[in-house]
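The instructor's notes for this session suggest beginning with a concrete chain rather than abstract definitions. Hand out the sequence below and ask the class to guess, before any prediction is shown, which regions might be ordered.
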Amino acid sequence: MGRSKVELPFGDSTFVARAIDRARDVFDRVYAVQRDGGAPAAGVETIFEPPHDDEAPAFGVLRALEHAGVRCFVMAVDYPLMTTEVLGYLARRAEASPASLVAPRWSERLQMLCAGYDAAALAPRLAARMRGGRFDLRGLAAEVETEVIQEDELRARFEGEPLMNVNTPEELQEARKLL
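After discussion, reveal the predicted structure:
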């Protein structure tokens, strides 16, 4: 995108405000994870990643898992079309699953930044992977017991494109059309 998506306008809100609003409707506790030196997210407790030079979502996920210490749900701001209904469904599936990782598949990709994680089981493993320079979250999913919620199941239950991951100006334009 060429800039942070956190404060990117979307509809009558921003990416981060939409994510926080949806999460508050589903979860008892909501935290934002921000890079070291970044500004806290407005209206929500913000925890910070330790300083690092690499660019990878794994740093934020690890920080969230370490902070939670228990099973938790991680959602990036990249899903501006997410609905409370879909998020609630994913959260319930993650909570009920014996798998250490529960992730939806959308557009033929595991959505690792909208997934349930067993923090106690996965934080040490993710930290070890990262010490070895392996930041790919899908690689983590390949190594652990993962329950995949298939796209066809989600599309049968829910309308729209709630798991559209927006990373480019073209995707942003498409998401705005769907709003």
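Then share the key points. The CA atoms of residues 105 and 150 lie 5 Å apart. The chain has a mean pLDDT of 96.
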